[in-house]
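INFO batch 0412 | record 1 of 1 | parsing
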Amino acid sequence: MTSLPAINALVDVVLMDGEAYQSRVEDVSGKRLTVAAPFGVSSADAPKVGASMELAWVAGDRRQAVDVKLVGLGREQPPRWLLETDGSIRLQTRRNYVRGGGGERVEVTMGGTTYSGRVIDLSEGGVRCRMVEDRFDRDDRVEVRVSLEQQVITLHGCVLFVRRDPENTTYDVIITYETSELIGRAIRGYVLRREMEERRRNRESVANAG
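INFO prediction complete | emitting tokens
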């Protein structure tokens, strides 16, 4: 059985840009937690009341997380944030990168020729995309352009794996790359927003069905 972290527990507050900041639980009451203003977030950069974020912590040997909303900013010193849970607690895997998304337009360029496809999933370390043409081999050097909402990011990477999907006559191409902190943060934030939106829709679907 999972439960919210106890008073004095160390937690990570993950903002919508994908950046994680350390904090500590000051109080717990029902679905609400009071945490110390995350270390590294200035008062000028603090999110607005109503903003969605994620709270993560380690219990035993498992990392857990829950979606939360910022419902209040304390004026005491040191400052505190009042958070309210928005969903159920879930277990997190310890993969190196947060992976998600799917359906985004992707363009892969090699040798001056550009091929279009769709993202299956992506992270700040790589992308798995579906292409209709068999044009890539392992270790090919390529340029990748991915559309994330209003932003298009360009990355240089290497083909790790190509697999044919006989049912759809398409090819799954996995491309790995290294990102700058700015691009990595943009990808993390995008994936996190997609995950939160998907969980919100699922909760609303269950509520409407009932």
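INFO post-check: The mean pLDDT is 87.
INFO record closed
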